[in-house]
Design brief:
With about 130 residues, this protein is α/β, with parallel strands linked by helices. It has one domain: 5'-nuclease (Rossmann fold, 3-Layer(aba) Sandwich). The protein is about 45% helix and about 15% strand. A 6-stranded mixed sheet has the order 3-2-1-4-6-5, with helices on both faces. Helix 1 packs across helix 2, helix 2 packs across helix 6 and helix 3 packs antiparallel against helix 4. The protein starts with a strand and ends with a helix.
């Protein structure tokens, strides 16, 4: 099974645009086509970001369902701290990807990441869908 780490901005995009590539990635996770990997710090970020006042307009039902799905992700606990990304919170995603030996890290902010980290390819949702459908 393809192992993925999902950046928080992908969750926000999926909630805003229900028929976009990001939402489709999450539907593949829900169908167990993709294996979602997360760490405790990533789960905490998901909750903190989706709980921000600026996202109060998002459907509480969908936010709750999405956080429940995230809670079912394979939990990994990195035993190291990286300082690779200039955007410090993004290091948590690189750490998780490495610890989980993820195939892909899916993000909407490719500029914050290298194109690859160890064995993990860094892609946006559309690129992941293209890779999965090959």
């Amino acid at each position: 099974m393809i192992r993925v780490v999902v950046d928080t901005n992908v969750l926000v995009s999926a909630l805003i645009k229900a028929h976009g590539a990001e939402a489709f990635v999450l539907s593949l996770v829900a169908e167990k086509t993709l294996s979602w990997c997360a760490s405790p710090s990533i789960l905490a970020e998901y909750g903190a970001v989706l709980g921000r006042r600026k996202f109060v307009h998002l459907s509480e039902t969908y936010v709750t369902a999405l956080l429940k799905l995230a809670g079912e992700a394979e939990l990994v606990t990195p035993s190291f701290v990286l300082k690779e990304s200039p955007h410090e919170p993004d290091n948590r995603f690189l750490e998780c990807a490495e610890a989980a030996t993820a195939d892909y890290l899916v993000t909407g902010n490719l500029r914050h990441f290298p194109t690859q980290w160890k064995k993990t390819r860094i892609v946006n949702a559309r690129q992941l869908l293209q890779a999965v459908n090959k």
